[in-house]
Design brief:
globular, 8 strands, alpha/beta
Length: 394
């Protein structure tokens, strides 16, 4: 009998730095690491350099002990805080990916999963595809956001498959393999990779799930692609520049807003480099933003980030829409949800679900309880499709 997918559960206070705390929880809950090792690791972290050194040590230890599942998680999360230009960054990425496909080799050999390369731009989009055993409830396209690999969402894909869904899990421009191995940066025109996938597989009626920054990208694609019939925004992101400014101290935020209006590149760069020295979250966000947006300074990144929103195209989104929130998201203020809801004036239907600390799902993208979120998505899709069937809608 096929083994059912099991998810870790729980949100733990592991580190006083909000971003280190979140990423340690993520390593456990999403990347399937060992909680006891995350607790021990937390006590060794005072800087991003500590994270890289200690996580890599943990990865190599797990590998030497043939704990491959843990090693995959730890190599992945070692690379997470390695900046572009680090000579070991791609080596560590390659090791995580190599171990992942070795560990899950049987799933691909039996045909339960396929790894496809969909032609796109000067390269390709990697896609992990699966079909359910019985009747198909719906077809789902699912992708991450600012910093994810598609491989870390394999448990979600397998759980959706168990529940009757055909799933296409993929990476687009600026993500995973497409960025690291092909050098293709983010594009605000997310409808283009979506079109490539829909055309390649000849799909005409799909649900799209965008996670984290994907909650900007998926709605943007839906605004221009009517083969998407249902949209799930797993998190809320109204504008990437707003998220960056929200992470800065209030005094600097006001000054930066004024300087951006004036186009004062030099002063903005001075302020941001100073903030990056003091704030690990800002330092990581800026450096990774340079990498995936293809820029080399804070000012140009901030201009690029300001393009990543969907308020400008929200009126074009006419699909059924599910918005998923987290009440104690360290990246996103809870007030932002109203901005999203107010902008979606032409959606066919709008469902909003805020997850809470009592549900172990209050952190960014509800990493403490992914099963609850997936069950919510599954129930919503079935409700929408049953409604359409009852009323004879297409």
């Amino acid at each position: 009998m096929e083994r059912k997918v099991e998810f870790s559960k729980g949100e733990f206070q592991l580190h006083q730095n909000p971003n280190f705390n979140y990423q340690l929880n993520r390593t456990y809950n999403v990347s399937n690491g060992n909680l006891d090792e995350m607790i021990e690791l937390a006590g060794k972290l005072t800087s991003i350099r500590d994270w890289e050194k200690e996580m890599k040590t943990l990865a190599e230890k797990a590998l030497s002990e043939e704990r491959i599942k843990d090693a995959i998680a730890y190599f992945r999360m070692t690379e997470f805080f390695m900046y572009d230009g680090n000579p070991d960054k791609i080596k560590v990425y390659d090791k995580s990916i190599e171990l992942f496909y070795q560990y899950h080799d049987k799933l691909f050999k039996t045909g339960m999963l396929t790894l496809d390369h969909v032609p796109f731009a000067q390269g390709y989009l990697p896609v992990i595809h699966t079909k359910p055993e019985g009747k198909c409830v719906d077809i789902i396209l699912i992708h991450g956001g600012f910093d994810s690999y598609m491989e870390e969402f394999l448990p979600s894909l397998m759980y959706l498959r168990e529940n009757g869904f055909e799933v296409y899990l993929f990476e687009g421009p600026g993500q995973g393999n497409v960025l690291r191995k092909q050098g293709i940066n983010f594009s605000v025109e997310w409808e283009k990779p979506i079109k490539a996938i829909l055309n390649y597989y000849d799909l005409n009626d799909v649900t799209i799930i965008g996670i984290s920054m994907g909650a900007i990208l998926a709605p943007r694609a839906a605004a221009f692609e009517n083969r998407i019939k249902r949209v799930v925004a797993w998190s809320v992101c109204t504008n990437m520049l707003e998220l960056l400014l929200d992470a800065t101290p209030e005094e600097e935020r006001k000054v930066l807003t004024e300087l951006l209006a004036k186009g004062d590149r030099n002063t903005i760069n001075q302020i941001m480099y100073s903030l990056m020295e003091r704030e690990p979250l800002i330092d990581w966000g800026m450096h990774h933003g340079f990498y995936n947006m293809g820029v080399d300074n804070p000012y140009d990144y901030m201009l690029a980030a300001n393009r990543y929103e969907y308020k400008d195209v929200a009126y074009k989104i006419t699909q059924d829409f599910l918005l998923l929130g987290a009440e104690k998201d360290h990246l996103i203020r809870i007030e932002k949800y109203k901005d999203v809801i107010d902008s979606l004036i032409n959606v066919k239907s709008l469902t909003y679900r805020m997850f809470t600390a009592k549900e172990n799902a209050a952190s960014h993208c509800n990493t403490g309880n992914p099963k609850l979120v997936l069950d919510t998505i599954i129930s919503w899709i079935k409700m929408i499709k049953n409604h359409q069937e009852f009323y004879g809608e297409k």
